[in-house]
Amino acid sequence: MSKGKRNFLLVLISVMVGIIYFIPYLRFFFYDQMLDGFHLTNLQLGTLGSIYGLVALFCYPVSGYLADRFSARILLTISFLVMAGLTFWQSTFPGYNTLVVIYVLYGFFTTATLWSPYICFVRHLGTEEEQGKLFGVSEAMRGVVSAVTGFVFLWMLGLFVDSVGGMQVLLWISVGLYVLFAALSIVFLPKTEVKGSKQDSPQEKGMKNIIKALKLPGTWLVAFFLFSCFCVINTGTNYLGTYTTQVLGVSASVSSGLAIFRSYVIVIAAGVLGGILADKAKSRAIFISGLLGGIIVCAALLIFSSSLVTVSIVITMVMSFLYFTVKSVYYSVMGEGGIPLELTAAATGIISFIAYAPEAFMTTIMGSWIDADPVVGFNKIFIWMISFSVISIILAVIIYRRHKKAEGI
C-alpha cells in the first residue's frame, strides 16, 4: 500500500467513525431540543444515555469476536446501513419506549460491528514504529469531524423557526451521511477475507483468538493500564468545565467557550503532536508515564490554587492537553504490551470492556461528592486523578520492563 493510499484510508475511516457517534450522543449538543422534540423528561433522556453506554460496554468483547470472523469492510458497511435505518426511525419522533429500543440498537451497531474493526484497521495501516502517529492522527481527525459537525448542525438548526422541524432535518441529513459512508466503505476499504486455518473455521478461529487473548498477560496489563488512564481522562472531560463555574466562579458562557477550546482545539493539537512524539520516544508506555506525571502535578496544584482564577484556568488547559494526549496514543501500547498483530481484534474487545467500565460508576460517585460539598468534592476528584495516574504509571513501567525483557535488552 502506498503512503498516499494509507493516509487517505486513515483519514476516511477516522472521519466515518467520528460521525457515526454523533447521533447517539446528540443530547450533548442539542439537549433542550431533544427534550422538546421527543417530549422527554431529564430522567428519561439521561436513562437513554445510560442504556446506550451499558449496551456498548457489553458489546466490546462481541466486537472483538466479530472482527476476527469478518472483514472491517463488511462490518463497517453493516454499521452505517443499520445506523441509517435507526436514525430515520428516530426522525419520526417515536415515544420513549421505542427510543429505548433504538438506543439499545445504537449501542450494538456502534460497538459490536464497529469498534474492534476500527482499531484493527488503524493498527494494520502501519508498522509498530508508526502506531503512535496513526492513532494520534486518527483521534485528532475524529475531534475535527465532531467539532465541524457540531457547529454546522448548530448553524443549520438556527435557520429553522421550529427547532423540532430543524432537528428532523438534521436527522435526515445524518441518514444520508450514513448511507454515503456505507457506499464509501464498499468502494474504498480493502477487500480482505478472514479465514481460519485448515483445521479451523472462521468461527473457531474467533473463539480460539479470544481464548489466546484471555491467556495473554499483556492483554490484562494493557486493559488495566487503559482502565486507569480512562479514570483520569474521563474525570477531566466530565468535570473540568463545571469546576470553572462551581469553584472558580466563571460565568457559564465563558466556561462553554473554554470547553469548546479544550474539546476541539486542544484535542486536535494533542492528537497530532502526541502521536509524533510518542513514536519518537524510546517507549510509548514511558512517554505516557511522563504525561501522567504532568497530570499529577496539575491536579495537586488545583487543590490549592482555587483562589487564583486565571492561574487555575491555565492549569486546567495544560491538564486537558496532557490527558487528551494520553487518550490519543494509549491504544498504541498494544504492541509494547506483547499483543501480537493477529490478536488485535480479540484483545481489543477484552481491553475495551475493562477500560471503559468506569463510565458505569464514575459520574455517580463524583456527582455525590460535588452535591455534598463542591469545594471538597472537587478536591476529592483531583485526588482521584492523582491516584489513578500513579496506578497508570506503575502499570506503564511494568509494560515497559516486560517489553525490554522480551526483546532481551
Structure description:
This protein has helices at residues 3-20, 31-38, 42-69, 72-90, 96-109, 115-123, 131-158, 163-188, 202-215, 217-246, 252-280, 284-304, 309-329, 344-355, 362-372, 374-407. With 409 residues, it is mainly α. It has two domains: 3-192, Growth Hormone, Chain: A; 210-407, MFS general substrate transporter like domains (Growth Hormone, Chain: A), CATH 1.20.1250. Helix 12 (284-304) packs antiparallel against helix 13 (309-329). It is globular. It starts with a helix and ends with a helix. The model has no long low-confidence stretch (mean pLDDT 87).
Furnish the topology, listing elements before pairings.
Blueprint: H1 3-20, H2 31-38, H3 42-69, H4 72-90, H5 96-109, H6 115-123, H7 131-158, H8 163-188, H9 202-215, H10 217-246, H11 252-280, H12 284-304, H13 309-329, H14 344-355, H15 362-372, H16 374-407
Please supply descriptive tags for the structure shown above.
globular; Growth Hormone, Chain: A; mainly alpha; 409 residues; 2 domains
Question: What structural class should be given to the helix and strand makeup?
Answer: mainly alpha
CATH class of the largest domain: Mainly Alpha
Q: What distance lies between the first and last C-alpha atoms, to the nearest angstrom? A: 32 Å
- Total beta-strand segments: 0
Q: What's the story with the biggest beta sheet?
A: none
Poorly predicted ranges: none
Q: Total helix count?
A: 16
Helix content: over 70%
Strand content: under 5%
- The CATH architecture assignment of the largest domain turns out to be Up-down Bundle
